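Progress note, sequence design subtask.
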């Protein structure tokens, strides 16, 4: 009635289950049903049947990922199909009403999926002749110049006109933080004026192509609006080829003035429930109250009009000169440590790299893998097959097994290599680790593919494992350089006191299968760089991955005998290795029961033994996530599902218990169950599946046993069907569990989640601390008081606030627990290497006949 057209957008883009996505679809269908009976009563703006003579009166915007809860760039094709299917239903109704639908653009990782959905809908036989379908592009994305050019070229080639709403972008903080956290290039312009310049550049290109493209200029920036008006005028663009769009409730003076000048103004009107509306409002407030926001500067700060209207290209040049890069710490010439980037599945090249790597590895399956002792291959008649857990008939490889005889050979090789290896400087030993890191980085996809096929890790989980292995190599190399320099102790005149570290001796590294490269590499690299030769026993189910670690060290030029690869049956050679008098330290990661056995056996001193053995043991966990009554459920449910069921729950850090404060219990549980039911189970190499198989038949039997225990102790809410043919198990959620139940106390190591209802946050915290373990834990809460209480009282080695319980990163989250979760310091932390060395102090009397030399760092003389 005020002369504005509209577009309606239903709020609430976060869906955690397919039932929620279906509900989002239903909301749109109900909205369109209501509009179908009302819009005929509205007079069209400018008269006639259409607004301004060309624009449908019914106009909606749709957030595509809300229509498919499992949308993920990892599964590009599946995501496109899942979104397209529900969008077709909405567009069909829009077409029936002769309305208009625009597909909104969300976070960067979904950009290419969204563009592909738009193209497929526009090209489809059903909708190719329906012109009222549009797309949004975001000027703050560095890709948008190319995306726009590609879209216009596609439009001309296909003869399909397009409608583009160009916005600045509303997720700048998110995109910047996520990129930095994951080690990716930042996808957005980092200077606001760069976005403004990009917008004007892209707006001109759209207007130049007005014959095939209708333009929706969405901005509150007066400089931007004026630039678009003047560009359209200079290019003689007909008025029906562009319009202006503003947010409902924002910048009222701007929109009223714009209506008077341009006439064709559309209000973007969000519609929906209070909580999603608040999230939308927060984004708008952040966007419009940022220091560089045009609205803030013009209305609140009354900045000079000349500066506000300055050409953004000039602003960019000025700000680039003013910004100085931060200095970076170095470790003896090495750049500051940074975590290896995770795979960015939004990039087609990354997705293709995984496909190629899996095919490459599959072509190498079925080989026999020898032991490697003293740099030489050793074959034995005792062998063990390793199979694909998704398809046990597919042989990954056959691994020769060590007996006590081969253990003796390996220890002799290590003893032979030890003196020369110890004599190398810390810098020289560190250089081998850096070479190994470079090799692993170059072959990150191939190394990931071996894990995908041998232990059933999903693509992202496998790549993260390799990235962590690289992190250990890079980080421990730098740490050894730090520890390698003698440290002066005290400042007493007349004497020089230095603390120095020396290797302990031969290290036995006994590794798990669940992080087959990362943990193996971390423990081995720590021992190697501190000067200790290694006897490496990989876990049986991941022995081929273990061989790839041996190959990495061989190619890095590690001297013979420093790293010895000796896979074998624990029942045959495990105790012998641990008890051997020449073994000085044991680094172990695995179950509590095996860890206790190692600790007991290592404590016994045997004839010929020269030192007390040191044991570094990272054991199990019974990790809990607490859901406070004010938690953000969208975030909490996603993180609980990931923490509990990613890699089938086969992580020592996996969430095994979720403790929900009573007022929010029913709502949380309902959404959690639907989210769990939406997770597909299948081969790890297929990105369409969230969950894969467990590692072997023993693991499968153990999980099935605990499902029965859960049934007897509580009420099973979800027990999804498991595929046939592999070591698949049901995803299971059990409620009615309290701390005394076995399912709440014993480590399961599989996809079983216990849901516990606590009266209040204090009881939730008490229950979280009620097991023998103390590894990881997590809290979702908006209460500063409760978060602070958790900091002080949640008794775990790694506590995560408002994020999941898995995914520790080297240096950022040194990892390890206490109580029955292990002994020793945290892996990937600043004191981990100390466990692999013995400290020594050398005190020299520097007085000579009453004369005391002054050292460079002496400060006792004034």
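Output:
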């Amino acid at each position: 009635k005020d002369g504005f057209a509209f577009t309606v957008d239903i709020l609430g883009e976060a869906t955690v289950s397919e039932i929620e996505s279906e509900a989002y679809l239903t909301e749109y269908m109900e909205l369109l049903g209501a509009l179908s009976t009302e819009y005929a009563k509205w007079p069209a703006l400018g008269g006639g049947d259409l607004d301004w003579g060309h624009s449908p009166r019914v106009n909606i915007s749709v957030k595509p990922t809300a229509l498919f809860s499992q949308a993920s760039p990892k599964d590009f094709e599946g995501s496109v199909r899942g979104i397209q299917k529900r969008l077709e239903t909405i567009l069909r109704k829009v077409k029936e009403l002769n309305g208009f639908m625009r597909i909104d653009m969300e976070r960067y990782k979904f950009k290419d999926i969204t563009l592909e959905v738009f193209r497929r809908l526009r090209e489809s036989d059903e909708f190719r002749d329906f012109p009222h379908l549009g797309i949004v592009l975001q000027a703050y994305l560095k890709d948008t110049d190319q995306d726009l050019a590609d879209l216009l070229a596609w439009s001309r080639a296909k003869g399909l006109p397009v409608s583009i709403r160009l916005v600045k972008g509303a997720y700048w903080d998110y995109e910047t933080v996520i990129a930095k956290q994951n080690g990716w290039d930042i996808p957005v312009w980092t200077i606001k004026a760069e976005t403004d310049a990009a917008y004007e550049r892209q707006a001109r290109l759209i207007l130049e192509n007005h014959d095939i493209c209708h333009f929706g200029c969405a901005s509150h920036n007066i400089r931007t609006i004026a630039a678009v008006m003047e560009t359209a005028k200079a290019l003689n663009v007909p008025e029906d080829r562009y319009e202006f769009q503003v947010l409902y409730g924002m910048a009222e003076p701007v929109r009223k003035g714009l209506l008077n000048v341009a006439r064709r103004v559309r209000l973007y009107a969000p519609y929906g429930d209070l909580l999603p509306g608040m999230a939308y409002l927060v984004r708008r407030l952040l966007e419009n109250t940022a220091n560089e926001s045009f609205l803030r500067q013009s209305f609140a700060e009354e900045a000079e009009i000349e500066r506000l209207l300055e050409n953004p290209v000039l602003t960019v040049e000025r700000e680039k000169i003013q910004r100085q890069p931060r200095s970076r710490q170095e470790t003896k010439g090495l750049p500051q440590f940074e975590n290896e980037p995770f795979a960015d599945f939004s990039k087609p090249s990354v997705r293709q790299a995984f496909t190629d790597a899996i095919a490459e590895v599959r072509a190498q399956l079925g080989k026999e893998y020898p032991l490697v002792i003293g740099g030489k291959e050793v074959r034995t008649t005792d062998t063990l097959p390793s199979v694909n857990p998704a398809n046990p008939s597919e042989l990954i490889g056959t691994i020769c097994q060590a007996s006590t005889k081969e253990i003796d050979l390996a220890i002799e090789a290590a003893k032979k290599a030890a003196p020369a290896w110890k004599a190398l400087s810390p810098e020289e030993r560190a250089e081998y680790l850096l070479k190994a890191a470079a090799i692993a980085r170059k072959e990150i996809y191939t190394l990931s593919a071996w894990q995908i096929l041998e232990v059933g890790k999903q693509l992202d989980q496998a790549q993260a494992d390799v990235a962590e292995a690289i992190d250990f190599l890079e980080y421990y190399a730098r740490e050894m350089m730090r520890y390698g320099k003698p440290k002066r102790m005290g400042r007493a005149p007349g004497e020089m006191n230095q603390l120095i570290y020396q290797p302990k001796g031969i290290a036995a590294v006994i590794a798990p299968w669940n992080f087959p490269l990362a943990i193996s590499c971390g423990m081995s690299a720590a021992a190697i760089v501190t000067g200790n030769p290694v006897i490496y026993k990989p876990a049986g189910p991941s022995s081929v991955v273990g061989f790839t670690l041996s190959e990495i060290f061989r190619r890095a030029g590690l001297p013979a005998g420093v790293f010895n690869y000796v896979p074998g049956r624990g029942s045959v050679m495990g105790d012998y290795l641990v008890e051997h008098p020449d073994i000085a330290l044991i680094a172990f990661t695995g179950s509590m029961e095996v860890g206790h056995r190692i600790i007991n056996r290592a404590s016994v001193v045997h004839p010929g033994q020269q030192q007390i053995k040191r044991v570094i043991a990272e054991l199990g966990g019974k990790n809990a996530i607490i859901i406070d009554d004010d938690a953000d459920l969208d975030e909490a449910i996603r993180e609980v599902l990931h923490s509990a069921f990613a890699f089938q729950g086969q992580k020592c850090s996996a969430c095994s218990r979720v403790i929900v404060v009573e007022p929010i219990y029913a709502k949380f549980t309902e959404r959690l169950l639907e989210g769990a039911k939406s997770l597909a189970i299948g081969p790890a190499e297929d990105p369409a599946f969230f969950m894969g198989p467990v590692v072997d038949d023993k693991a499968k039997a153990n999980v099935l046993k605990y499902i029965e225990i859960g049934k007897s102790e509580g009420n099973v809410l979800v027990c999804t069907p498991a595929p046939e043919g592999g070591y698949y198990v049901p995803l299971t959620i059990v409620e009615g569990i309290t701390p005394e139940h076995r399912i709440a106390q014993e480590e399961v190591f599989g996809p079983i989640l216990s849901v516990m209802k606590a009266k209040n946050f204090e009881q939730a915290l008490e229950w979280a601390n009620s097991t023998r373990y103390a590894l990881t834990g997590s809290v979702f809460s908006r209460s500063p008081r409760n978060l602070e209480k958790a900091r002080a009282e949640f008794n775990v080695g790694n506590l995560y606030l408002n994020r999941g319980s898995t995914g520790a990163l080297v240096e950022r989250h040194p990892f390890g627990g206490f109580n029955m979760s292990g002994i020793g310091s945290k892996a990937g932390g600043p004191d981990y290497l100390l466990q692999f060395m013995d400290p020594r102090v050398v005190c020299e009397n520097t007085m000579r006949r009453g004369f005391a030399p002054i050292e460079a760092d002496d400060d006792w003389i004034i």
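The first helix runs from residue 18 to 38. Work on this subtask will continue into the next period as scheduled.
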